[in-house]
Amino acid sequence: MRIIYWPLILLLVLTKTVDGQIARKIVWEKSRLLTWADFAGQPYDSALAVAATFCSIETLICKQNFWTGRITMKVEATFYPDTSWYLTSEIHGLTLRHEQGHFDIAEWFSRKLRKIIKDEIKFVKDYNQKFSATYGKLYQEYFTMQKRYETETKYGTDSGRQVMWENTIRNGLTSFDTYINNGCPN
Fold this sequence. Notes:
The chain is an alpha+beta fold. It has one domain. It is 46% helix and 13% strand. It contains four helices and five strands; from the N terminus they run αβββββααα. Strand 3 and strand 4 form a beta hairpin. Helix 2 runs antiparallel to helix 3 and helix 2 (95-120) runs parallel beside helix 4. 28% of the residues are buried. Residues 1-18 have low confidence and may be disordered.
């Protein structure tokens, strides 16, 4: 049973800030777009970036059926306001849309992970045998996608490529609409 609680402990450790406080987070919602008010972090000097979006894919085992071992997992795309930032004097018309794209990519990959969990990780045994490798592989794809998005849009400054990526992300989200729910009952 110790392994079952590991994701919860890891999640709690990862959501702490340096000063020991729980980090604020915004969970992705279709009807809620990011605003500049959500970016509360301190900017740092960067030659390329005029803004930074810190987001991730968080997982948690919500429950386990004692008799069957069947598990229910929650997967969330999360945005961290306290570490996300922008340079007021440097932003342009596409900047916020570009940053929203990073958060939307996190949701796209969260949905991919929900599908994998639904199809392959139903029991504690599955979780113990497959989840770490599955998550690691998916997270590498996610990280690569985020880097490609930055490079191909020239950090959101190439309006044509930005629009192309927005369509790609929208299509990716739509292709996994079945997995929009995070799976945890209240």
